[in-house]
Structure formats: structure tokens, C-alpha cells
Amino acid sequence: MNNIDSYTHLRGESIYVDDIPLQAETLFAAVYDSPVAHGKIISIDVSEAEKIKGVVRVITAKDIPGENQIGGIVPDEELLASTHVHFCGMPIVLVVAETEEIARTAVKKIKAEIERLPVITDPREAKEKGELIIPPRTFKLDNTGDAWKDCDYIFEGRTETNGQEHLYIETQGAYALPQENGSIKIYSSTQGPTAAQRTAARVLNIPMHQIEVDTTRLGGGFGGKEDQATTWAVMCALATHLTKRPVKYCLHRMEDMRMTGKRHPYSSDFKIGLNKELKILAYEVSFYQNAGAAADLSPAVMERTLFHCTNSYFIPNVKATAYSCRTNLPPNTAFRGFGGPQSMFVIEAAIAKVAEALNLPATVIQEKNLIQAGDEFPYGQKADSEAPACWHKTVELYDPEKLRQEINEFNSNNKHYKKGLAMMPICFGISFTKTPMNQARALVHVYTDGSIGISTGAVEMGQGVNTKIAQVAAGIFSVDLKRIKINSTNTWRIANTSPSAASATADLNGKATQMACMEILKRMKQVIADEFNVSATAVEIKEETIFINNEKTDWDWKKAVMATYLRRVSLSEHAHYSPPGIHFDATIEKGHPFAYHTYGTAIVIATVDCLRGTYEFDAVKVVHDFGKSMNEIIDRGQCEGGIVQGIGWMTMEEIVYDKDGKLRSNALSTYKVPDIYSVPKEISIHALETTKDNLAILRSKAVGEPPLMYGIGAYFALRNAIKAFNPAAEIAFDAPMTAEKVLMALYGK
Ligand code: MTE
Ligand code: HPA
Ligand code: MOS
């Protein structure tokens, strides 16, 4: 079934924040942001800016009526810098003017005198200096200390993974409108409307019920709008509060790249031990997370790094420690995978190191150590594992042994082109790692003409959640999908929402929708039963027709709806869902945090041009655990998009900050993302359909984030291709593997 948004998308009629027709009197905002990464503000001179015709108000920290604080987990981030700046791009002054051009011209006239302070960009240096966002955390399984003596092979190493720019097509933006009695309505391109509402209330010092946040859809979020969309929503609300006029701010691409955080870079150390049979017996790992200048979501991201430190392997002795390190970069934030990809890279690098040293394919070690049903993750949850099933189906379907032979043949026949193959199993826990966030609500109205309006906390960002929710309702009522409208996400209709994130949006909001629809259906059936003088169990609605004891009646859906209304029975329901059975105790770092896990295995094949260092991906062949997909088109799209985004992170996307903390890769001319030419020539996705019960909506497992991690295989496929050209190459585990790095490795010692 097609995405319900495809019609307006293709016609260019879908509405994003920048498309909302403007109200009269609308003002435009722009931010003056810090030119230095760390310093003390000595003075700010806005006099030249204020003189410009059309500038309506210049706002600094002292104009904020409430708390100058936007930190969600840790209160450590000011909306507008008051005394110190902590990263290049930190907002200091907010200008509002009659036009966008005037606002941006005025910003250029602002002068700030800032006394420079030492800049830290490296997480290990931050840790040495005691600059930690929260105390370190350690996850343990059994005892690594005792296990080393049983190991026949022990290897140690270090890895680096870089950040990643979200590059949602729609940049950050918001549009705030004044309402009666000091209320404010904010249209925001946010994954977390409630976060924007809560923070606006805090900054303006007004109750949350005065702030209405409304989100129709996003032109992509990828985690970048889970927390950081709040900033711009609150900026606009603040300016509206102070001017009593509508205020809009949609960031230009370079503003967005400069001022917002990205995926967290990590530096990590590992130690891995195996016995002669290649069973991994022990694994120790330390993660140095580059959090940037404020906590943002870093503590939660760090937690997921620990959860996924063994990927889809069972390792009996594990010790994993993570440090969230404060540096002078923009606060890094959620990005598809949420810290999971970063730790999966490390265990894969550890396995690759062993394989290269023992001169055998990594796949031999990977396969031997796949987590089996009943095995324990380091955090205490027992696996209901599809890891072996996905792996073996991959082998059966795509025959990697044969592929490897073909590659060997190609490599011996070609001097300047070499191919490499890697397999990448994945395992991703589904649920917010913070248990209380796993809740959602839905409000369903059936109107007297038979049409249905649904509101939930889910935000549509291209992942197709609205289509899935409409499918849920259409299925329960057994009505045509055309009868259903999914409304914008709005904090006055649905309160206290968790952000649309953690791949759990369809599960949580879909289940709430399911509950609300079931309740309405139950009432309608009782009304029909009363009319026909039968019991409610005799009533069924099938494809908009009413059946009594399996016999067709002359009643249809619309008639049943009207009958329910005339009997004064409610056709509306607000339902609340929270998944059962999940818990986690952070004092002992044990529990059952995930409703379930999503698994899969990919084969990635790369071809390297050994004269130029450039490369292509011939194929990504996947077996993915969908449970039972409720929408194959959408789910395949999520897989394909995730794979390409993952490959981008591992290969060509290179974020560069200089030692002064200035972003050098600050535009699309200096930051390369995969385009149509760098997409793998083949992406095959086979659905592993399982019949097991799970907590997913209609047993359709969450698919938003997990496929990104197949992209990690691209790094190792490239590594294997390089080794085919230069077996002596010593290649640091340092992603992304850009063409420059490939070239160096091809001709390095
Ligand atoms: N797909 C599209 N097209 N656009 C996005 O912004 N975000 C990803 C993923 N897929 C994203 C996407 C991220 S980071 C998450 S957490 C999930 O979608 C969120 O949606 P879900 O919970 O409905 O899977
Ligand atoms: N995933 C994504 N976003 C989150 C999470 C998570 O586990 N926890 C808090 N925000
Ligand atoms: Mo996704 S990183 O959980 O928004």
C-alpha cells in the first residue's frame, strides 16, 4: 500500500513550515551566533543593528522572562548565551525584523567582544581534564578479569567514528503566532512537539496550556529534530511573546549546519579474547563520546551505546564503560541508531582485527558467536534471537562462499580494481531506553458522515507512520482507507507526548490508535445488536457492510455510525497505551529495557579503484527481520534509505572541525553525502517473516533505525578490498573511509 502522503508529495502540495501562508504583520527572525568556540562575553554591541530600518526588536539573554534554559536531561544549555559561549554557532542575539533580508543584514552588524578561553574538541582530552557531562557508566556481564586466562587469542585496539550531519531536506524552522490572552501557537518542524511546548513554557514563564505546538510533517528529522528543533520553536515563541506579532524563522542550510549538533563522534578502546574454537570469551571496551558543549540527549545516547556494545553476538564476559565528554562543539544529538551504530562499529572492528591477524574471514568468527535464543545481553535481558535465522537465510539465499570465490577470481584477474566483501549482522533493541518514555495516546473521532479523524503523538517525518496508523484504524473498522484522515500532531489534542523516535512511533501510537478504535467499535456493535435484537458478539463489520451471525444485512458503515449517534452513544475515544513488561534498574545496570529486538544480516560488496582510491558498492544483500510487515513498500523504503545513510556515515561523509572548533565542512560543497551515483548498484531485501508473538503493532517490527547499521558493513568491505591490493596495509579503524584514506591505505606500509 502506498504512503498516504505520496499524492501531495508528488504534486508539491505537501505543507512544511516554510509553506504555511503568512499572517499579516509577520516578522522574521535571525540569530547572531558565536564566532568563537569558547569564551567570556565582555560586551555585545547591537546599536548598529537596531538602527537599521525594519528591525523591530533585538533580543538578548536579559530579555528572557522565564528561565534561560533549554537543557532537557541536564539543565546546562542556555537559549541565548548570557556570560559565556561554549561552541562556535551558539546563539547570542535574536533579531526580529520586517523581512528575512533585514533580519540577516542586521545580524551582520552586531559586534561582540569575547575573551577567548581554551578550546577542547577531543573527547579524550575532555575526559583527562574531568569535563564529563554525567558520571561514567559501566555495563558488566560475569567477569572479564577471570576470563582472559582462558583465551588463546587476545587483541587490543582503538577505533574512531566521526559525526554525521542529519541533512534533513527541510532545515530547522518554526512559526509562532500570538493568540488571545498571551497564548502562543507554534508551528514547528519537530519530532518532539511536547518538548518544544514544555521548553517554551519554561523560557516564557507561562503554563504549558498556553502553548500549542502543531506539526503537520517534517521534511526529514533523522533524530536531528528530536531535541534540537526546540531551540527554534522557542526562539520564535520568545520573539512573539515580546512583540505580540507572528514570528517565523526557517534556517538557511549553512546556519543549520553551523549551529546544530550532529551524530556523536566516538573514540573507543577495545580488548577482545577468544579460544581456539574462535568463541569470543571476553570483551572489554571504553567509549569516549564527544558530547559537545551541553548534554542535550548525550546521556541517553551513551546509554544505548552500552546496550548495543555486543551487537548481535553473545559474549559471556563483558565490561563496557562509557564517558560522555564535554567539548566545545555544538551539542551533539540523536541520529538514527542513537549511539548504537557507534558501539556496533567497535565490536565489528575488534572481530576484524582478530580475523586479519589470524588470516581468516571475519564471517567465520561472526557466525560462531551469534546470539542464540535464551542468551543474556550484558544488561540482563534474555534474547529472543533471530540472529542465527537471519544469518543462515542470508547464506542460503545469497551464497557468500560463491560470492567470495567470484571476488577472488576478479581480484586475481584485475590489477587496478579490487573487490571486498563483508557481512554485517545487526541487533537493535526497540523501546526508549528510558522506560517512562514508552507511552502514547490517540484520539479517534468518527464523524456522522462515516469519516474518521485521528490524532496521535506520532510525527510524520517521511517514515510513513501516518500511513501505518491509518492502516490500523481501517483494519479495525473494516472501512476504506479514504474515510480516514490523520491530523497534524498537536499538543492541545494529544498531551505529554514522547518524541517520535527510537523507531517505536508506530508501535506506541499505533497501539493507542488500535485501543481507541476497538472501544468505539465495541460501542457501535452494541448499538447494532440492540437494533437487531441480537447479542453484540453476533455483529460484524466487513468491508463497510454490517453482518449479523455471518449474514449480510442492508446496514452499512454509515448507517451504523448514524444509529450510534442517534442513540447518543459516543463516537469518540481517547486511548492510552504503554507496553507491558519493560523495566530497567540503572543502579545495577540490569533489566528488560526492550519490548523486543529487530535483527538482520547484510552482505556488502565493494569495488575499489586502486589508482584513484575511489570506490563503488556493487551490492547490499539483506535478510531483514520484519516480524510480519504491515506495509512492505514503506518498510523496504526504510531499509533502502537507512542503508544508504549508513554507508554515507561510514564512507564519504566527513565532518571537519578545526582545532579552534570551527566547522570547516559547513556546506554541501565541503560535506559530501551519498547521491544517486553512490547508491549501491543492487539493494536486495528479503523479508524474514516470523510467526512469533511480539509487542510490535500488528506484529510488524520497528524498522526505522536498524537498517542504517547494515551500512557499517561497507567500511569492512572496503577494508577487505584494500587488503586484496595491499595485504601489508596497516589500516587504522578510523571511519569514515573516505577516498583519500583508501588511497593512503592502498599505498601505505
Ligand atoms: N525516515 C525518513 N524518511 N525520515 C526520517 O527523518 N528518521 C529515522 C527513521 N526513518 C527518519 C526515517 C529515525 S532517526 C527514527 S527514530 C525513525 O524513523 C522514527 O520513526 P518511527 O519510530 O516511526 O520508525
Ligand atoms: N532512542 C531515541 N530517542 C531517545 C531514546 C532512545 O532510546 N531515549 C530518549 N530519546
Ligand atoms: Mo531517531 S535517532 O530515535 O530520532
Structure, described:
The chain has 749 residues and is an alpha+beta fold. The strands form seven sheets. Strands 3-5-1-12-9-10-11-20 form an eight-stranded mixed sheet, with helices on both faces. Dioxothiomolybdenum(VI) ion (MOS) binds next to loops.
Bound molecules: ligand MTE, hypoxanthine, dioxothiomolybdenum(VI) ion
Q: Report the biggest beta sheet as strand number plus sense, adding barrel if it closes.
A: 8 strands, mixed
Gyration radius from CA atoms, angstroms = 27 Å
Number of strands: 30
Mean pLDDT over all positions: 98
Brief sketch in words of this structure:
This protein has 749 residues and is α+β, with helices and mostly antiparallel strands. The chain contains 19 helices and 30 strands.
Write the layout of secondary structure elements.
Blueprint: H1 6-11, E1 27-33, E2 39-45, H2 47-51, E3 55-59, E4 84-85, E5 91-97, H3 100-108, E6 111-116, H4 123-128, E7 137-141, H5 144-147, E8 153-161, E9 173-178, E10 184-188, H6 193-204, E11 211-215, H7 229-243, E12 247-250, H8 253-259, E13 266-274, E14 280-292, H9 298-307, E15 317-326, H10 340-358, H11 362-368, H12 387-398, H13 400-413, E16 417-430, E17 440-446, E18 452-456, H14 465-477, E19 484-486, E20 489-490, H15 505-532, E21 539-542, E22 545-548, E23 551-556, H16 557-566, E24 572-577, E25 583-585, E26 590-592, E27 596-609, E28 615-627, H17 632-650, E29 682-689, H18 712-725, E30 733-734, H19 739-747
Parallel strand pairs: 1-12, 8-30, 10-11, 14-15, 18-19, 28-29
Antiparallel strand pairs: 1-5, 2-4, 2-6, 3-5, 7-15, 8-13, 9-10, 9-12, 11-20, 13-14, 16-27, 17-18, 17-24, 21-22, 22-23, 25-26, 27-28
Helix pairs in contact: 6-7, 9-10, 10-11, 14-15, 15-16, 17-18
